[in-house]
Specification:
Two copies of one chain form a homodimer.
Chain A (H helix, E strand, L loop, with lengths): L2 H14 L8 E2 L1 H8 L3 H13 L3 E4 L3 E4 L4 H23 L4 H20 L4 H20 L2 H10 L2 H7 L5 H19 L3 H29 L10
Antiparallel strand pairs in A: 1-3, 2-3
Helix pairs in contact in A: 1-3, 2-3, 4-6, 4-9, 4-10, 5-6, 5-9, 9-10
The first copy, chain A, binds a DNA duplex through helix 3.
Chain lengths: ~230, ~230
Amino acid sequence: MTAADRVYQIIRQRILNGQYPAGSYVREAAIGQELELSRTPIREALRRLVSDGWVEAIPHHGAQVVSWTQRDVEEVFELRVLLEPQVARRAASRIERNQLDQLESLAVRMEDLCRDEGENALEEIAVLNDDYHARLMAAAGSPRLQRLLETIVQVPVSRRSFHHYTRDELAGSMQHHRELLRALDAGDGDWAASVMRSHLLAARAAQLRFAACVEETGAGVASTPRA
Amino acid sequence: MTAADRVYQIIRQRILNGQYPAGSYVREAAIGQELELSRTPIREALRRLVSDGWVEAIPHHGAQVVSWTQRDVEEVFELRVLLEPQVARRAASRIERNQLDQLESLAVRMEDLCRDEGENALEEIAVLNDDYHARLMAAAGSPRLQRLLETIVQVPVSRRSFHHYTRDELAGSMQHHRELLRALDAGDGDWAASVMRSHLLAARAAQLRFAACVEETGAGVASTPRA
DNA sequence: CAAATTATAATTGTATGCAATTCGACTCGA
DNA sequence: TCGAGTCGAATTGCATACAATTATAATTTG
């Protein structure tokens, strides 16, 4: 792994946890001094971040961390509703027994956490949920579909959507995971795609409700909140 | 426009017309000497080409021009069939009168060229067709959807698909353009999406037939043919 | 003679210095 | 007082030099 790769991950992480707030500029020289590297690998990392949509390059003026408007969030959901059911559909006709077992194991652990009501259970569920989707993606066997989704589903929005769920919605989400397993096991692509679609539309509804809420209270939604 | 931007376009053009064949390596130093630039802007252009999927970065060994297998072509069609109907659907509820008129003008010119049977009429139609799709994309008003499609619909495959059409298929394609205009004018998203889907599935069928043909004759399909 | 090994050359990865460009503040004039 | 123009500081864009890594090929050894 090259220095530029490390810098890429470091900067992305800092954008994620709000250390670099939306709208702020990421300076090559500053990071270079801090990490004791020259500007060259920093530049390369920033260019990758630009093409991955994390920052915006203003010619001769720097790399600006992107701001997310509600409209952006909606646009991403619209694309996910198109693409992710296709992931499920493909997986239904390709998934292997052991992959199915792994997914089931993840689903069980999420359900357990859901019942526990532990302190940071939501965060743990979110991690497992990411793993679940990643393994499903792998089973679908379409590198381009994977790349597209990785490009648009940037964690700051998707991950946090879990926190807006009511208890019922969370239970419903767990139910979706289970039903998807049955659809996959049956090799029924239509069924699997439909379940995934419901899964996403439910997430979108929760997100929309949250957006309406912050609209009233006047809390910002554009900027990535700090950790 | 920076030097890196120019280099990006130059290299991409050379990949397109076969000057840099699939599987070959693009050397930073060689291009730098030829264009009388240092390796720095060349590197930057190559990194962009990597993230746009034109070349593959082999660590410490260089940038290799990607090879397209039949499976890749099918994967791209699968994604287009998902995404482009959504472009039509969005455009149906957003398009303005003058945009519709421009699309119609393009459709008419394509139909004329189709009747002419001129020598390089196919090439001209392909150019107009690209314009048609670009304007439709603009009318859809979704930058992310646009970016996704630009990423996957790399011209070497899509543009050439026109050349595999029979006369009937070409006429049918023109008919799709017309019908799409009616659907857009009616503001009927379902209709527009359905027409676009047919449009793409027809293109896919022609591509598949062509692939089967070269399979028999043993002609290569993986490498980008020379101009 | 074959296989492992080492040396070499070629290529990318990184550091540093300078040039070009842009944005902001300050000054000058109306 | 307001506006236009100009100067300067800051930042990116590019060139060059050097270091690190890897593939290749010659070489040596069993």
